[in-house]
Structure formats: structure tokens, C-alpha cells
Amino acid sequence: MVSFEEARTIILACARPVGIERVHLLEASGRVLAEDLAAPWDLPLWDNSAMDGYAVRWQDCTTTPCTLRVTGFLPAGARAGGISVEAGCAVRIMTGAPTPEGCDAVVPVEETDDGQQVVTLHEPVTKGQHIRSRAEDVTAGVIFARSGTRIRPPEVNMLAGFGMALVPVYRRPVVAILSTGDELVELGCTPGPGEIINSNTLSLAAAVREVGGIPRIIGIARDNRESHREKLGEGLRADVLITSAGVSAGDCDLVRDVLEELGAEQKFWKIAIKPGGPTAFAMYGSTPVFSLPGNPVSTMITFEEFVRPALLRMQGYQQVFKPLFKAVLREPLNKKPGKVQIIRLRLEKERGGWLATSAGNQQTAMLKTMVDAQAIAVLSAESTHFAAGDQVDVHFYGNHIEMESP
Ligand code: AMP
Ligand code: MG
User: Fold this and answer.
1) Ligand 1 pocket test: which of 244, 257, 290, 366 has the largest number of ligand atoms within 8 Å of its C-beta?
2) For position 399, what pLDDT does the model report?
3) pTM
């Protein structure tokens, strides 16, 4: 038996990126950069105008108002070569156009009479105003995005600006999902007496997809060695294998046994947590194998706390745990010492802080409590009693997007 923390440490020590691929920039958002990227050129590449207006020589504009002769026009996309601002003159210029020779300030059209041949400026001008200087944003050679960065629209924009159509990202792991048990029938069948629908495969596939993995559904291993051998063998060909059920101490619990027979090396069995205690973890070569308990709540909670961080690490993330924040308990909570207890909570915002109440009956078999949960608290093994008003560390779980900003 290992502790909650030991289990995480062992798992993360085994979770390595499964490779790098180059994807088109259109497919890159949400992926994780696998290399540091250096700017191939300065951004911007030339001095240019930040406003629609007039390119001027600042020393010509020290009186207000002042009048200048308009000698040229530079729309966006124009080249500045051959055009210059002579003494007492101005060049009409549009936002983004390169500033001409001699120009050391741009006067916005709103601060002028908008003249075509002659322009009158009616505001004071400062040197350098409204000019974006070459390399002001990024200098050539500077690392503008580091390996391990999740690609978001801003990264996409900069990559595109630098002409980088193919982006090196960590490969998404293919995650085999296998349920075990004679009581299971597949979705679409009507369960007979004693039978239940194999819901874990579906929810595991959803959880894998949500965290960026590619689920590969292996189906159901029946409670005999032959079936376990065949299905586990198939699952071990993926980058990661997740099994559900058959990992307790029951007569039909064959998963660990057959995994060992197939050559997997068990790293631990049983974590001092509730729910989710009879979780096992093994390595088959470089393939992590998570054997999760079959009870749907246990399966989902152990996925959340142990598998999710591993799948993130395998995709190059450094920060793999959800951030913890404090919530104040509205009601007292008691637990036995010796095991970490994982509690499903609902949250409410009050005066800038969070109030937490139980999401329902905390017994493991209560699936509805899981559906209703908005946050999870991981209560330490030593703790026994929490009074109403006590603070606990929680992290979000599930449909929380609208609640995210405290
Ligand atoms: P076990 O770990 O095999 O003792 O299963 C624990 C509980 O989880 C039992 O009530 C099983 O019926 C249930 N269970 C096991 N596998 C699944 C599954 N794939 N989908 C839904 N429930 C399951
Ligand atoms: Mg079973």
C-alpha cells in the first residue's frame, strides 16, 4: 500500500512524452510545444506607423498650429524606398505602412485638418510619437515560446506572423481502455438480470479525450484468464493502458495476475485513499498501465487524481496538477484517520471566497454525487474532524468554467 503522494510520485516518474510530431498551425492550438522557438526575424521588421495620419519631422512642428506641405502618400503595403519627408513637408501615411526617410513622428489624422495638399496640425507633437520601431516587439533570435507551452491563439498568431506553418508538438498518447467483468454488456444492449451496462469505458474515453489523449476502446475482458490474456495483450500495444475493475481481492479479480504473466512490472497495488483504494500501477516496457477499481465513482476519481496528471506529463506539460484553492466548509465533516479521503463538493461564491457543501451522499457507489460535484477536496490521511467554518484545499472538477474567476 502506498500513500496518495507516493502514488503520484511513482506514476509521474514513469510518465514520459511519447514522441514529437509536426502539425499544421491550424491543428496546433491546445497542443504543447516540443521545442523552444526563436524569432527568425525582428518584429516588426521595419519602423512603421501606428496611426492613419501624417509622417513628419518633429523639428518642423514645434509651433501649434503648424502647416506643412503634403508631398507623398504611403498606404499599408507600400514601400518607403524613394519617399522621404523633406523640411517643412509631411507624407500622408496609413497604419502599418513603413515610415519614410526623415520621419521621426506620426501625427494622427484626428489631430489635423485632414488636408490633401497642405495640412495643418492643431496639437503639439512629441518626438517619436506613433511610430512602432523595428524589433520593438521581438528581436530576431529571441526565444518567443518555450517547450512545454500550451499553444493558444496568441502563440498561433505569433507563429503565423513568423511564417511557421508546421509546429513541433508532443504527440497525443493513444490510450487503450479495457473494462473487465462478466456482468457487463455494451451500450445499446438491454441488461438482463445481474447485468449492467459498461459505462466506465465511455466515461474513461471521455476523460482521456478531455485531457488530450486518443482513446482506443478494447472492449470487455470476461472473468477468465483466456479473455484477460487476449484483451490485456491487445491493450498493451497502446501508449497507455487503463483497465477498470477486477483489481480488488475478489475471486474473479485477474487483472494484476495476468498483467504480470504478460510481462508488466507492478509498481504498486493499493493506495491509502477512499474511494479508489484498490488501484494498481504497472509498467510494461515504457507503457504505463493503470488498473483502476470498477466502481464508476472510484474509476473517475482515480483517473482525475492519478491518470490525468500522467497523461498531461506525457504530452509535455510541467504543471500537471489542478491548482488548489481554499474553500470554507458550510457543514462539519468527519473521517477516519489513516487514509486520504476524497470528497465531492458543491461551491458557492461569497464575499470573494468560496463556500463548500457536500455534493450529496459520499458513499462510493453514489454516481449522482459525482455528477453534481463542482470541486474535489483531498483530505489528508491524518485529519479526522473539520468543523463548519474550517478551510479545506479544493480543486475544480467538472462544469466549472463559469465559476473560474474568484
Ligand atoms: P469490481 O472491481 O470488479 O469488484 O467491480 C466493482 C463495481 O463496479 C461492481 O459493482 C461492478 O459491477 C462495477 N463495475 C465494474 N466494471 C464496470 C464498468 N465497466 N462499468 C460500470 N460499472 C462497472
Ligand atoms: Mg468484477
Assistant:
1) 244
2) 63
3) 0.91
pLDDT for the residue numbered 80: 82
Find the residues whose C-beta lies inside 6 A of ligand 1.
179, 181, 183-184, 196, 198-201, 244-246, 248, 250, 293-296
What pLDDT does 52 receive?
98
Q: Among all ligands shown, which has an atom nearest to the Cα of 198?
A: 1
Residues of the chain with pLDDT under 70: 399-406
Ligand 2 midpoint to CA 226 (Å): 15
Which of 177, 178, 180, 184 should be mutated for ligand 1, with most atoms under 8 A from CB?
184
Question: Each residue of 81-121: pLDDT tens digit?
Answer: 889 999 999 999 999 999 999 999 999 999 999 999 999 99
3-state secondary structure the chain: CECHHHHHHHHHHHCCCCCEEEEEHHHCCCCEECCCEECCCCECCCCEECCCEEEECHHHHCCCCEEEEEEEEECCCCCCCCCECCCCEEEEECCCCECCECCCEEEEHHHECCCCCEEEECCCCCCCCCEECCCCCECCCCEEECCCCECCHHHHHHHHHCCCCEEEEECCCEEEEEEECCCEECECECCCCCCEECHHHHHHHHHHHHCCCEEEEEEEECCCHHHHHHHHHHHCCCCEEEEECCCCCCCCCCHHHHHHHCCCEEEEECECEECCCCCEEEEECCEEEEEECCCHHHHHHHHHHHHHHHHHHHCCCCCCCCCCEEEEECCCEECCCCCEEEEEEEEEEECCEEEEEECCCCCCCCHHHHHHCCEEEEECCCCCEECCCCEEEEEECCCCHHHCCC
Atom of ligand 1 nearest to the CA of 246: 3
pLDDT in tens, 138-162: 999 999 999 999 999 999 999 999 9
Q: Which ligand is nearest to the CA of 367?
A: 1
Note the pLDDT of residue 406: 43
- Find the 272 Cα to ligand 2 centroid distance in Å: 21
Nearest atom, ligand 1, residue 293 CA: 2
pLDDT given at position 405: 46
State which ligand 1 atom lies nearest to the alpha carbon of 201: 19
